[in-house]
Design goal:
The chain crosses the membrane at residues 6-26, 55-76, 82-101. Keywords: Membrane, Transmembrane, Transmembrane helix. It is elongated and about 80 Å long. It has one domain (19-111). 19% of the residues are buried. It is 76% helix and 0% strand. The protein is built from three helices and no strands. By secondary structure, the chain is an all-alpha fold. It has helices spanning 5-29, 48-75, 80-122.
Length: 126
């Protein structure tokens, strides 16, 4: 029996990434760490309290999905190409969801700012 060291490292990396996602969800939810409600580059969101439940959900789903995938590799014996592809799909979905949430928060903040400016201009001066 030969062991592919790259596949083994990738498999062990599933646990590390899942632990990172689950600990991030725990720190955001339990310890109210709003500084972690940020994009991939740690740029904070415009209104982190609004997006806190979304980030908890994203991290929980990603972490649980990776742990389930790792368990399926051992229980069912998924082939390398299949589980590596699924792991990549989970990771990239997580990555793009983070970016989407960041850009969505920026857009929402810009729209709110425009609405405040329009309301200030529409208010008659006394």
């Amino acid at each position: 029996m030969t062991i592919d060291i790259f596949a083994l490292l990738l498999y062990l990396g599933l646990f590390g990434l899942a632990a990172l996602m689950l600990s991030r969800a725990w720190r955001i939810g339990k310890h109210n760490r709003l500084d972690l409600v940020a994009n991939w580059s740690n740029k904070p969101l415009a209104n982190p309290e609004r997006y806190k439940p979304h980030y908890i959900t994203i991290n929980l789903i990603g972490g649980i999905a990776l742990l389930a995938l790792a368990a399926l590799v051992l229980i069912v014996g998924l082939p390398y190409k299949l589980w590596a592809s699924l792991a990549a799909l989970i990771f990239w979905a997580y990555f793009f969801t983070y970016h989407f949430m960041y850009f969505s928060s920026r857009k929402k903040a810009a729209l709110e700012e425009k609405q405040k400016e329009a309301a200030a201009k529409a208010k008659p001066a006394k």
